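Issue 218. Parser rejects a valid record. Input:
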Amino acid sequence: MILFPAIDLKDGQCVRLRQGEMDQATVFNTDPAAQAKAFEDEGFEWLHVVDLNGAFEGRPRNEKAVEAIFDAVHISIQVGGGIRDLDTIVTWLEKGIDRVILGTAAVRNPALVREAARDFPGCIAVGIDARDGKVAIEGWAETAEMTALDLVRRFEDAGVAAIIHTDIARDGVLEGLNLDATAELADAVTIPVIASGGLAGIDDIRRLIEPRYAKLEGAIAGRALYDGRLDASEALALLKDRREAQKAKG
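Output the parser choked on:
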């Protein structure tokens, strides 16, 4: 079980949105690289980085900030936002990014996902952002006529490394993860699934380590980390204890 701290980039700054609305962005750090280093120092092993401008515009817009983050840390990084073609995927992977997240492209161009997953095993994740169970695309500005489950099943045999399931209604509002919906997806496919949207505090971490959610790869934490509602050391300690307990059981 991995806890991914989120760095959402808007105009080169670390922000958090409320339910995906770009005009409701709160700036938490003007130095993304410093924020990434702080997360690394706290003991996190992964970073979840999203280029918000890129997601809306359809091409990367915060490349310098992402590169600064990469140069500042030595932990794994997954990046999404505005990645719509193979050239962009290759560019990020050649820079050393560990995993690329495809969202809109997964709906508009599923063949791209399959090609990339085949050519770069372990490096391609699919971001499924859901509003009332339907998939949202183009930076959450549009809703497709497809359910999250339909989209997940589309890539069951594609070799995708992970599915990131975000409940838009909960994103940035600290109402708790929608673990039941995420677990339903995880139960339907063999692809590892990551929960995102609404993580509010340590109670969400306690729920994550319940047997019911054992199939999940982890969860993404954003605003709760930035405003202090979630203590990183306490959360990571709980997850470490769970891993050790599982190892002890064999």
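Fixed in the parser; the record now loads. Residues 15 and 27 are 4 Å apart (CA to CA).
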